[in-house]
Every structure is written in structure tokens, then in C-alpha cells.
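Work through this protein:
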Amino acid sequence: QLHLVESGGTSVESGGSLEISCEVSGAPLGRFCLGWFRQAPGKGREGVAALIRENTARYSESVEGRFTISQSNAKGALYLRMNDLKPEDTAMYFCAAAENIRGSCSGSLKQYDYYDWGQGTQVTVSS
């Protein structure tokens, strides 16, 4: 069974940068479509970034140009690099995975397209 564990969340000041990680174990990372989601207090879960293929990804409008998703198959890890952080980026961040049964990933930002989830890591941005 796939196991996802996020880490690296912390408190940062507005305008700062942070990279969070997701360790994936239980199966080779290359077999899965991967994405990052976030959920702010009182709001629904929002898709932030998802990989389509190496060096190609889809981003939500709210983070386009500021966030970068990447993966390391060798390390079995997914990353989200976040620059120019804003208070509205404050949320619990989750990594998600779905087995790539079609041979390609669509870069979906819809949570129901993913079946395995981590427990989340908290990112707080102060103004």
C-alpha cells in the first residue's frame, strides 16, 4: 500500500519562500500521478499543482508563477517549492497520488482523481 508523508511546513513571513516535501513509499514513484492540494480553515480542499510529466505541470491560477512542483524518483519524494508567499497561502498542504493506469498523467487538480493522501503539513504565512 502506498504511504505518503508530508514534511517541511512551518511559519514564514509574507514574501518568503519555503519548500515542502512528500516522502512516498510502498511502490515506485514513477507508477503514479502526483499532486499537491491545500485546505485553509473553513474552506474546501483546493488543487494547487500537479505533474503531467517530467518538467511539465499544471498550477492553479492563485499560485501560477510562484510555486513549482517537482519529484525525485530516486529519492521517492515529491516537492513543492513556494516563493513570494502570501497570507492567503496559509493552509494545510497535502500530497496526493493516483496510480497511472493510462500511461500518462493529466495534471488534474481535482481531489477525486486521487486515491492516496498524506496527513498534511501546515504552512502559515504572516503579514
